[in-house]
Amino acid sequence: MLDIGSTIKLCREARKLTLQELSDRTDLTKSYLSRI
């Protein structure tokens, strides 16, 4: 079973988004996203 962090990463990579792009779209910091 995947945890939420792995699921987010898989979805992000499938959409070819960088952490910065996801951060911009969600108003969450890159450092926060990389920790989950």
From TrEMBL:
CDD domains: HTH_XRE. InterPro entries: Cro/C1-type_HTH, Lambda_DNA-bd_dom_sf. Residues 8-36 form the HTH cro/C1-type domain. SUPFAM superfamilies: lambda repressor-like DNA-binding domains (SSF47413). Pfam families: HTH_3. Signal peptide: none annotated. PROSITE patterns: HTH_CROC1. One of its GO terms (molecular function) is DNA binding. This is XRE family transcriptional regulator. It comes from Klebsiella variicola.
